[in-house]
Amino acid sequence: MAKNSLTSNKNNQKVTDNIVAKLWNLCNILRDDGVTYNEYVTELTFLLFLKMLEETGKEDRLPKKYRWSELNHREGNEQLDFYRKLLVELGSKPDNTSVSLEDEVEIRDPMVQSIFDAAQTKLRKPTNLKALTNAIDKLDWFDVREEVDEDTQDKSPQEDSDKFGDLYEGLLEKNAADKKSGAGQYFTPRPLIDTIVKLIKPQAGEVIQDPAAGTGGFLVAADHYIKKHTDNLFKLNSKQSYFQSHEAYRGLELVPDTHRLCLMNLLLHGIENGVNQGDSLSPDGETLGKADVILTNPPFGTKKGGGRPT
Asked: C-alpha distances in angstroms, 107 versus 36, 74, 180?
């Protein structure tokens, strides 16, 4: 039994690693269009978000006219122009004085709006956008959905979501390992995070904070730990389960693009809201409120010689 579990776990990781490698290779297309290393994952995040919502059955969080299928079927300049409009629209709050009745029904999701806030693509060539959408669409998404947990053959929709979240976190880790991207300062190695979380032993019902959230690794790891010890939240009643996904996790992240990646990471792991963009050393920090557990790896000083970031 243990041998089968180990084999299954290795196969699952192989699927994830394979797709992460393919996603990272797409950076060659981005580089050809003038996208810099530190912009790679942000640029991919916009497209992956649309595709992953389709794959996880959560497209109802998007207006129908701004979903993956609407982008993917287009060609040439029409696709690029539509994509630019999509980014602006998903990142803006509805103007009730000008939207149609149909748009009013599709009230914008606040977390989606935060992910796409001030979003813009650096892509200039329609052929490169089409190459990206084609490549993403052809990835082995079925294999990701079919991955099984090492301890059980049964999967819930939440577990499906976590698989896509783990895939995205693998991309963040790959980006952090590339020194040219400069993203390592926002990403704490997962083995270190997992060790700290196991020592702290966060519990269901606790408010868990990270005042320097980065890409959300500590909050995601705490969520994994709690799910593991509550049978994926099934041991909790509906009120407790809602608390875990909507109220248990809080944080702040100073850098807007890193905050965007953090929200994507949290959402794909089933964590709603929780992390705002702001400076925890400013009055923004007061918005965090009280915490039962604080898990964080704050930046210690700056290249200028330490002190409060400016």
From this structure: 34, 25, 39
Amino acid type, 70: E
Average pLDDT, the chain: 84
Per residue in 120-137, pLDDT (tens digit) is 999 999 999 999 999 999
Q: What number of other Cβ atoms are within 10 A of residue 76's Cβ?
A: 11
* Residue 61: C-alpha distances to residues 41, 125, 144, 272, 301 (Å): 22, 29, 21, 12, 39
Phi, psi of 94 (to 5 degrees): -60, 140
Q: Are residues 12 and 123 in the same domain?
A: yes
Who's near 191: CB < 8 A, 6+ residues apart? none
Q: Rounded to an integer, what distance in angstroms lies between the CA atom of residue 217 and that of residue 266?
A: 9
168-182 burial, b if ≥16 CB within 10 A, otherwise e?
A: bbbbbbbbbebeebe
Specify the number of domains making up the chain. Answer: 2
Residue type, 43: E
For residue range 206-239, what is the model confidence (pLDDT) as tens digits?
999 999 999 999 999 999 999 999 999 999 999 9
Question: What CATH number is attached to the domain comprising 159?
Answer: 1.20.1260.30
Are 88 and 216 members of one domain?
Answer: no
Bridge partners (DSSP) of residue 76 are none
Q: How far is CA 205 from CA 193, 238, 240, 292, in A?
A: 20, 12, 7, 9
CB-based contact 214:297 (threshold 8 Å): yes
Instruction: Tell me which amino acid residue 224 is.
Output: H
CB of 219 within 8 A of CB of 188? no
